Model the fold of this input.
Amino acid sequence: MPNENNWDSDYPDLDKILKSEKKYEWISEPKYKKIFQEIEHSIQGVLGKGQFDWVDRRVFDQVFDRSTLLSLHKLMQQGNIETIDYPLARGKEAHVFKASSKEGPLAIKIFHTTNAVFKGLTKYIDGDPRFSGLSRRHRELVNIWVRKEFRNLKRMRKYGIRVPEPISSLKNVLIMEFIGSNETASPRLKDVNIEDPISIFEEILKMTAVNWQICDLVHADLSEYNILWKDNTPWIIDVGQGVTSRHPSANEFLVRDVTRITNWINKQGFDYSVADSMVKVLDIPVKKSD
Ligand SMILES: Nc1ncnc2c1ncn2[C@@H]1O[C@H](COP(=O)(O)OP(=O)(O)O)[C@@H](O)[C@H]1O
Ligand SMILES: [Mg+2]
Done:
């Protein structure tokens, strides 16, 4: 989607906007100004100046607060990211962007540090000394969530489950392998027609079995929405909410995951039972690869 529009006519100069809006006042402080200038060209793809015209400033407002820009600056200095190219998906909790490093394409998941509900409440909380720790606590929760997604990815990958390789994480930013070809992200399982869905169903159950029996993890949000389809194989993503078997609801989550996958295959005109699928997940002999 090349941007034929002239950025300047559609959007006033970003610098002016940032200066004119109170919430960006921090950017004009010399320390931050320098940092912002250093990464500005690297984030063109999300400033609406790049080749993708469907990026707008709301993305910037929602995602790139001071702390996130500082994290990105650091990750860029460390050589983990060169440019952020365009958004792949926007969710309630995070935006996912296609990015690049010297080694090639990347996916960056940036978690929102303030959600909409919370944002609406800050005006009642900011300035009230009794609640000065609240937004910090929210941030810390998000940071823990990111570290959890990173660790789950690492653990699942170690035992041969097809998930994106986690590359680095800092605060609310998670960098991982890009699942796609060239510039195009792979579609979700939900959006593709598969020739031999039964073998894919079996494969997803097998990955779930390895995850449960060996990694000691339950995905806890497994469905055709969180599986990407690349090179005729399923890739599991979005593993941040995954819990270990010691979690009090682990069994319930496992049954829910297996139910959703069974519903998915049955939508293709089959009639599998959740009980049979569960037996497979619990009993498929899985080999420890190391
Ligand atoms: N590693 C990746 N490579 C390519 N696209 C990705 C990757 N991770 C996420 N995406 C895209 O971003 C979307 C949202 O990512 P996901 O991790 O599921 O976040 P959410 O919590 O918002 O559901 C996915 O459906 C997929 O289209
Ligand atoms: Mg998801």
Observations:
- The domain at 186-283 is CATH 1.10.510.10 (Transferase(Phosphotransferase); domain 1).
- The first helix runs from residue 7 to 10.
- The pocket of magnesium ion (ligand 2) is lined by residues 225-226, 238 (CB under 6 Å).
- Residues 1-11 have pLDDT under 50 and may be disordered.
